[in-house]
Structure formats: structure tokens, C-alpha cells
Amino acid sequence: MGLFSFIKNAGAKIGIGKSTAEEAAEKKAEAAAASEAANRKAEASLKETIQDLGLEVENLQLDIKGEMVIVAGKAKDQTTKEKVVLVVGNVEGIAQVDDRIDVEHKEPEAQFHTVESGDTLSKIAKKFYGNAMKYPVIFEANKPMLKDPDKIYPGQMLRIPRLD
């Protein structure tokens, strides 16, 4: 019959010339590279969202490590810092935010509340302030992330500022 020529990189992948360990290592490296690329894309998207919301942080750095995001930089005030943490943390797939943001003008920290099924801003205001009619304070404290006081969802974390 004779010698037949084929395109080396086409056809079924059966791993000729590679051990199972080498193939596994290649697949692991490919998966890691894909994950890293996805993280970089997500970091860029989060930075864009933060910027679009008007939250200014000098030298904003985000580093996604699995379900955790490390966020660093310098915010002008505590409110901006807390809102950035909430923007990052209220993203599907993010379980923890490691807050390393410095604050230029120190002020008291707000409390935080994770929304539960059945919660409303009025109910949360009653719990924290003793007055359900103070719900606009919570709504304003969570702008621009909240666009409507009736659109909160279970699992969402909200800033509860101190009343002066």
C-alpha cells in the first residue's frame, strides 16, 4: 500500500505519545488558564460597575480567588468604602470580601443586614431604628445599588447607617 500522510493535529484525541498524567496536567493547566481569564474579565466588569455607580476609589484593585474577592485601594470616606464592599459582595458566586480599602476621612462604620425572605425596608428599619418610617434612610444609604425600595432580595446585604 504505501505511506499515507495525515494532518497531525486533526482527528480523535487518544493521547498518543502522552502519559495519562501528562494529559491530566495539560487539562488542569488549561482549566486554570480559563479560570484565570474568567476572573480577570469579572474583575474588569466589577471595576466598571463600581465606576459607573460613581464610587471613587484610588488605585482600586480587585483580586478574585474562588468565592472570595480581595478589594484594595483608597476611598474618600467610610460610606464609599462600604458601598464598594457591598457592590462586590452582592454578586452571585461571591461568598466573602476581604476589605483592604483605606479611608481618607474616618467616620463611624455602618451596620449590615442580610435580607431574609419576607423582609422589607420598613421591617428592617423597625428592627434597627425602632421606626418603620425610617426606611428611606436605609434606601438612601444603599443607593445607587438599590434603584427601588421595593426591590430587595433574600441574601442581599444592605448598609444600615447610624442615625445622628
UniProtKB/TrEMBL annotation:
<dbReference type="InterPro" id="IPR036779">
    <property type="entry name" value="LysM_dom_sf"/>
</dbReference>
<dbReference type="InterPro" id="IPR052196">
    <property type="entry name" value="Bact_Kbp"/>
</dbReference>
<keyword id="KW-0175">Coiled coil</keyword>
<protein>
    <submittedName>
        <fullName>Peptidoglycan-binding protein LysM</fullName>
    </submittedName>
</protein>
<feature type="domain" description="LysM">
    <location>
        <begin position="111"/>
        <end position="160"/>
    </location>
</feature>
<dbReference type="InterPro" id="IPR018392">
    <property type="entry name" value="LysM"/>
</dbReference>
<dbReference type="Pfam" id="PF01476">
    <property type="entry name" value="LysM"/>
</dbReference>
<dbReference type="InterPro" id="IPR007055">
    <property type="entry name" value="BON_dom"/>
</dbReference>
<feature type="coiled-coil region">
    <location>
        <begin position="21"/>
        <end position="63"/>
    </location>
</feature>
<feature type="domain" description="BON">
    <location>
        <begin position="37"/>
        <end position="105"/>
    </location>
</feature>
